[in-house]
Design goal:
The protein is α+β, with helices and mostly antiparallel strands and about 350 residues long. The chain has a domain at about 5-85 and about 200-360. It contains 13 helices and 15 strands. The strands form four sheets. Strands 11-12-13-14-15 form a five-stranded mixed beta sheet, covered by helices on one side. A four-stranded mixed beta sheet has the order 1-9-10-8, sandwiched between helices. A three-stranded antiparallel beta sheet has the order 2-4-3. Helix 5 packs across helix 10.
Length: about 350
Amino acid sequence: MEPHRLTREQARRIIVRAQLLEADRPGDVVEVAEQLGAIKIDPTAVLAPSEQTIPWTRIGWGYEPGQLTKAVEDDRQLFEYAGSFYPASVLPLMRVRMRSRPLRESAAAWLEANAAFRADVIARLHRDGPLLAADIPDTAAVPAGNESGWYSDNQVPRMLDLLERLGEVAVVGRVGRLRRWDVAERARGPEPDGPDADEAGALLDERRLQGAGLARQRSSWSGVGMAGEPALVDGSSWKWRVDPRALAGIDDDPGGRVAILSPYDGMLFDRPRLIEAFDFTYKLEQFVPKAQRVYGYFAHPILCGDRFIGLLDAALDKAKENLVVSAVHELVPWESEERDAVDAEIHDLAGWLGVPVRGLD
């Protein structure tokens, strides 16, 4: 088919709308996960963990952190997998992908060398689960390397992470930041009849495009493959894929708003798309030496309508119980209305955190 032709403004509007960042706000965290496809989990809590700030950025005052726990642990409308929360509607497709997921040669060799350890972990969860990793004995015969530094000498968390990716165990809840594990068949029920791996992959590509709205064709950053329909964007040489449902409402414009985004927000993941569509280059300076930082350790991008206009360098001071604003960086000159809207959003953020603002002029 002939590609759809989009202006840059239309392209940005499609992306912003797909990410639920326009004036119309979603009603709850399940609606957010259904549209975005996934909510990233990360313990870095300069303001709040990403799995809490991502829903708040969309929902606003109607969101409370306990809603996420309820949706995951009580209502089972969301589930945790590999560092993100997903809507239950994609679980059958993802279970197909888990069964067919290839492992790196080193990981496969480590599992083979620790076959008895693997069986021990599964048996312990069958008998006593759900359990924390600390409740499961480490009976590994061969330790794995730890070049990344993510793991301790205890091999149980590594085994659980690998078995989760293969669909044999599942996270069923948390105690603080610690995950509670169980065998997958008890946590998620029997394996459903469903599509084959290729069909499941194509359907998951469509769900990812739903959350992206518009993405580069076959980009490793977006993972949408050939889902949707072809599109061209004015001034861009890329071959794009667009969600046809996004095109249907392209002329319905409820208006924009200010949104303060977690550095781990899915809106920011596709860095090349940020540059191509929004002319915005974002670098998280969390791992940059302090003397070389430009915008701050964990600066939050500020979206105004369909433009990135600044970055917020702020942190929650738990001891003094306030939100400390170190800087609000303007990437472009702001109009007075934009400044007022950003200030209001920062005060709303502080109110959601339950603290006053300090340092905002």
